[in-house]
Each structure stands twice: as C-alpha cells, then as structure tokens.
Amino acid sequence: MTPWGKRDDMVVHDHDPFNAEPPRTALAGHRTTPHDTFYSRNHGPAPEIDPAAYRLTVDGLVRDPLDLSLDQLRERFEEVEVTATLQCAGNRRTGLMEVRDIPGEEPWGSGATATAHWTGVRLADVLVHAGLHPEAAHIAFAAPDVSPLPDPPEPFGGSITTAKAMSPEVLLAWTMNGEPLPQIHGAPLRVVVPGWIGARSVKWLTHITAQAEPSANYFQATAYRVLPPEADPRTSGPGEGISLGPIALNCDILSPDDGAQVPPGPTRITGYALAGDDRTVARVDVSLNGGGTWTQANLDAADEPWAWQHWHTTLDLSPGEVEITARAWDSTGALQPESPAHLWNPKGYINNSWPRIHLNCH
To answer: Would you say the pTM of this structure is higher than 0.85?
Structure first.
C-alpha cells in the first residue's frame, strides 16, 4: 500500500523523503484534487509537530515580533479560504530528460500539479500586525524538515517578495479541502503562495522573517534556479542562474492516457491549463498534425483566479497511430513554447512546452 494515505497507483519516486505523483488520468475530472491523489514533494523526512505545542515566530524587520500558537492565529486574524493550484517546478521533467540526461533529479511526469481549497489566515494580516519596516523587501520562511542535499544538511526554506506576501491570496493554511492539513502536506501550518512554484509554499512553517534580501536558504539561493545549459549543478553556487517565482504558462493533456488504445472516430480529449501569478488562461488549442492546424478547445469557467482551468474537445481520430498536441495562450498574449529542446536546463525545471500524447486507434 502507498504510504501517507495515497492511492495505490501513485508513482512513487522516493519513499523517504516521500515523493510521489498520481497518473495523469487521475487528475482528469477533478477541479479540486482529493488528498489521496495530491502529489507530494519533499526534500527531507516529514516532521511530526504537536499542534498543541506549535509556535510560529515572526521577526526580522518588524516593529513587534510575534510568537503565536495556532489558537492565537485563529483568534486574532480573519479566517479565509482560497482555491489554488500548486505545481512543482519539476513538473513534466521527463520531457526534458528525453532531450538530454538530467542526473540526480526526480523523473516527474505530468502529475506534480494539483488544486485544493485552502483555509487559514492571510499572511498580509499577520505582517501588518507585526508592523513591517519599509526596507523589508522579502519575506522568508523556514521549517524544521532537514534536507541532506545541502552540505552541510539544512532545513527547508525560501522567500517571496513582500509585494507578493501582501497580496490577499497568500495564506498561512491549516486545512486542505475542508479537513485538517495532513502531516505529509505540512501540518499543522503551511504557506500557500498561489501562482508561484510549489517550493515557495513552505510546509511545516515555524518561522517567518522580514528582511531586505531574499532568503539565503539553499532552496532559495542555490536550488530552484534555472542554470544555463553548460552549467554544472554540482559546482554552481548561491545566486547563480534565474531564481524561480511565478509559475510559467502551462497546459497538459490528461485523457486519454499517453499510449492508450482507442477506437477510431469521435474521441473526447481533456486537460488543464494554468497561467500563474496574476495572469489568466485565454485559450487552449489542440492539434492532430503536430501543430500544422489547430482546433480551439472548450475552456471551463475558472472557479477561482488562482486555480487551473480544465478544457475539453472532441476530435475525429483516423485509424492508426495518432499524435495529439495542445498549447495554451494567456491573457497577455503569451504562448507556450513548442519544444522541450528550447527549454532544457541542467536541473530540469519549468517544462512548459507543448504536451503531446500518442494513441493507437484500432
């Protein structure tokens, strides 16, 4: 049985730390992702924190440092709910691995993305209560899950800009889909940063620091950065490459599954699209000839501004081998890049190239 209450067909990349994703077809038909289907990305063992003994420290460039229990968070600040999609920066990495080897990284497929209803308090309300100094340009998060990846090992952390932190959608969350936050997803309290890569939504949050510069934590300063193709990640140091924040425009095909056998004729094709940060999905197109011609898909209405949008279309498939391709446009007119070869980077981040599946129509 798959650990942490996950479905039995999860693709488990590591057991400890636990890293797993569902098959792509499991995401089809769910606007919100059930807990047993929600991907899990971890860099160290999941800590077990007693909610009754939990404390959150808020310090740094603030007028009044805070030391809060969960009950104090609930009592002092307004409870709000946000529906948001989280996506690992390594989602669809296997497409980049087909271009060129990426040693030492998990072979994430299409399942490292998911959507949930998150309940908690606005990070902005907590920061206002603490009294931010004007020079606090970044808000750093720290957690107790220790990763062996840095040398020496280091707890996980990261930061976001104060401008993003003060946006009303950024939460300190304690429930997920109406249930207490599961341990593997950050209980008792986690950050949820809609529109940004999942690594910035730090789990098991214990410390918030207002500071003038981005976090010096390994997972902000060294990891989760797009390095130039010729770089060696083993020798790259802090500050090299492009630091990842907002999610890139992306879409994927969820059903039928890649490699499936289907009868010729009208076939329903479904998927999702996600724009990231403050952009929205404007259109999704689907092609049967590698992008020579396109059919506009039907785009479901957005439930929430920070959640993915599902799309669908029905195409008439001819007998034989069929390749289906999709692409998304966002509200700025931006379009997904065509080829993963144009995106390859040594850590395998941000593959938002056109998704492609192959079907056997017999």
So the answer is: yes
The H-or-E segment that residue 221 falls in is helix 218-221
CA distance 219 to 290: 37
* Continuous segment of H or E residues that includes residue 127: helix 123-130
Cβ-contact 5, 35 below 8 angstroms: yes
Alpha-carbon distance of 277 to 48, in angstroms, equals 31
Q: Return the amino acid letter for 47.
A: P
* 357 is a domain residue: yes
What's the rounded Cα separation, in Å, for the pair 269 and 352?
A: 19
| 2 — pLDDT class (breaks 50, 70, 90) | confident
Q: What ranges make up the beta strands (E) of 95-178?
A: 113-122, 138-147, 154-161, 171-176
pLDDT digits (tens, 9 = 90+) for 252-286: 999 999 999 999 999 999 999 999 888 999 999 99
From 243, 277, 295, give the residue that closes a domain.
243
Half-sphere exposure of 240 (CA within 13 A, CB side): 16
Count CB neighbours of 286 within 10 A.
Answer: 21
| Structural domain count of the chain | 2
- CATH number, domain of 300, equals 2.60.40.650
Degrees (nearest 5) of the Cα angle 217, 200, 127?
Answer: 90
Tell me the pLDDT tens digit for each residue of 146-169: 999 999 999 999 999 999 999 999
pLDDT for 1 equals: 58
Instruction: Enter the tokens of residue 312.
Output: 């669908």
Q: What is the pLDDT of residues 127-146, one digit of tens each?
A: 999 999 999 999 999 999 99
> 35 lies in a domain?
yes
Mean pLDDT of 294-319: 95
Statement to judge: residues 191 and 260 lie in one domain:
no
Judge contact between 357 and 258, C-beta under 8 A.
Answer: yes
Residue 305 carries which DSSP code? T
Q: Torsion angle of alpha carbons 104, 105, 106, 109, nearest 10°? A: -140
176 HSE (CA, 13 A, CB side): 24
d(CA 282, CA 172): 30
**pLDDT tens digits along 83-99:** 999 999 999 999 999 99
